[in-house]
Each structure stands twice: as C-alpha cells, then as structure tokens.
Amino acid sequence: MGARTSHQRVAVVGAGLAGLMAARTLQQSRDVRVTVFEKSRAPGGRAATRRDGARTFDHGAQYFTHRDARLADDMVAWREAGVIAPWNARVAARDNGTWRAANDAETRWVAVPGMRSLGEHLAQGVDVRYADTVSALRADAERWWLHTSDAQEHGPFDHVLLAMPAPQSHTLLAAHAPDFLSHVTATAMQPCIAALVELAAAPAVSWDAAFVNDDAVLAWVARNASKPSRGTAECWVLHARADWSVAQLEAEPASLVAPMLDAFNQLLDARVDVVHAVAHRWRYAIPAPVAADAPLAHYDAASALGAAGDWCAGGRVEGALLSGRALAEQLLASLVRR
Ligand SMILES: Cc1cc2nc3c(=O)[nH]c(=O)nc-3n(C[C@H](O)[C@H](O)[C@H](O)COP(=O)(O)OP(=O)(O)OC[C@H]3O[C@@H](n4cnc5c(N)ncnc54)[C@H](O)[C@@H]3O)c2cc1C
Prior knowledge:
Elements: E1 8-13, H1 17-27, E2 32-37, E3 50-52, E4 55-57, H2 72-80, E5 84-86, E6 91-95, E7 98-101, E8 109-111, H3 116-122, E9 128-129, E10 134-139, E11 144-148, E12 153-157, E13 159-163, H4 166-173, H5 181-186, E14 189-199, E15 209-212, E16 218-223, E17 235-240, H6 242-247, H7 257-268, E18 274-287, E19 298-300, E20 305-308, H8 317-337
Parallel strand pairs: 1-2, 1-13, 2-9, 6-15, 13-20
Antiparallel strand pairs: 3-4, 5-8, 6-7, 10-11, 11-12, 14-17, 14-18, 15-16, 16-17, 19-20
Helix pairs in contact: 1-8
Bound molecules: flavin-adenine dinucleotide (FAD).
Flavin-adenine dinucleotide binds near residues 15, 37, 40, 62 and 310.
C-alpha cells in the first residue's frame, strides 16, 4: 500500500477532535494531501453544541482539562485566539444525599461560544466533506477507495485514517484486519442519554453544575448559561448514568425526557417550569479505560490503515486531541522510513 506518488493522499474518516488534529498535523507536511469525511453536517463530533434560536446546549463534552505538556502551545494559541476560555463554575457533588463543593485546583476549559467551536476552529483550512458517511473501504493493489452511503466511491488514497469511536471503526476495519485490529475490537464504549432543557427561570441553587453520584437516573447536570458567551437563555444539560442509559438505549428519545426531568426535580427539591426539552442519545459516549502505557494511536504501515480517537487515550477531549496528532505523526514517520 501507499506507493510513492508526488503527494501522499490521505483520507481521514471523522471530523471530531481526533480526526481534525490528525488532518492539521498531516497538512504541515507539504508532501501530504488530506481529505476528511464526516457523516454529520458540522465538525467537532462529541465536543458538540446544539443551537436552536437563542438556546444553546453543549450536549456532549461539558468542559475539558489540560494535563499533558504536549498540548501546552495549542492551549496558549487557542486561548489567545479566543477559541477557549476558562469556565469558572461553582461545581457541586452529591454523594449519599450529602452535598459538597467539587471545585478543585484544575481549570475547567470550554470552547466559546460553544464546545463545537473548537472543532470549527480546527476545521479551518481543512478539506472536510460533511454529510458523507463512509460505509466501506476497498483496497486494490496499491490504493484505498472509500464508499459512502450515497453510493459514491472516493479515491484513490494512499492511506486511510479512522478517527471515530472504536465500534464504528471496527465496522470499517474488520474486513481488512490491520495489525491493530485487536485493540479496536477490545474497546467497548458506554452510551449516555442527554436531556437538553430550557427553564422559564433559574432554579434556586447555589451551584452551576453538579456531579450526581447517588441517583438512579442522573449523573451530571449543568447550567449552560454559566459558561462564557452562551447567552442568557436558561438552558440546562442533564446527563444520565451509564447503566440507566444502557437500559434505555433503544427507547424513543422523546420518552426519556420525563423521567430525566423527574429526577432533576427531585435533585433540586423543586418543580422546574420547562419551556423546551428534548433528549439526545449518544450511543458511543465514553470508552472503557485503557492501560496507562497503551499506544496513543495505531498506524499499520503494511496496510496503510490507522485509527485514533479518545478510546486510545482516556475518553476525554484532551485524549482525543493527543491521539489524533499521534496518529498523524506515526504516518509521517513511516514515510520517512521508506
Ligand atoms: C455525553 C458526553 C459527555 C462528555 N463529557 C466530557 C467532558 O466533560 N470532558 C471531556 O474531556 N470529555 C468528555 N466527553 C468525551 C469527549 O467528547 C470525547 O472524548 C471527544 O470529543 C472524542 O473525540 P473523537 O474525535 O475521538 O471522537 P468523536 O468526537 O466521536 O468524533 C468522531 C467523528 O466521526 C464521525 N463519524 C462516525 N462514523 C462515521 C462514518 N462512518 N463516516 C464518516 N464520519 C463518521 C462522527 O460523526 C464524529 O464527528 C464526553 C462525551 C459525551 C458523549
């Protein structure tokens, strides 16, 4: 695979943070041409924002933390560009019916004006084909072709990098058996049901967000308007527990709003006045933990296939960013070795 041409043509599948970091890193090489295929109509993947008139909801990733020095320069650049800002939230936690403050030394960062803004920033200058779902990969002697769900074939490409949740990558990779396939197969991901709720008025609580560690339904609630640049609509995001989300996974999302609002009312010990509420099902929300020494990404030079994503690196925004960059670096290193 990957016969040397004037340029190496790379297809990246998935315009989440991992795929966009991979694409941007590859584009730093003049020898590489990158095309990203994304099934939805916007970048960012699970670092998502739903906008509906004056309502705005970060219904996937809530915030992110920065621990790894390899992202230090990016963090400075994104902050200077106004793409991210600290979220100085009052965060509470409830355990066994007892409330406590959950503020710690770590800064909680958010993209502005919505979590999707980081993906939108990273997508600038990248050739992303939106609303293009990759349904299969086909190889001929030296090249790869991508089939999309509109029955089109795209290519040829010298390399294909998948930057999606592991089960979705597995669907495309299983027939081609790259050397890292067992890592993809082994990674389970848990779902999360989210409720996106606009209230008529702010509830009388002394916190902006809460980890709910003792409820049968809810795991996290957050007042979106407490984040910078979100507007004034009283928008809340409620995330259900993983076990409840598993049990409700095939239910009609609309039917899940009521039980989540009931749990929210119980949490607040009040009855909220709801203006608008919808549920969203994240089928692959959070990956199973990986070993600390697990590879940040997987590139198989023999097949010219690679895979990255948060599932390689801790199930968080920072892990996705690091994994995407690592995958691009592995591919570029393989070109130098040839
Ligand atoms: C409910 C929830 C809460 C979270 N909270 C936090 C948090 O507070 N802090 C934190 O750090 N992280 C959090 N996360 C995790 C964080 O969102 C992820 O770690 C990160 O966004 C993953 O990025 P990724 O690029 O690896 O994958 P994704 O964001 O999943 O990107 C994959 C992309 O691939 C696309 N795609 C999939 N299949 C195909 C296909 N066949 N063809 C084309 N495109 C395809 C998808 O549409 C998507 O855009 C949360 C996630 C969820 C769901």
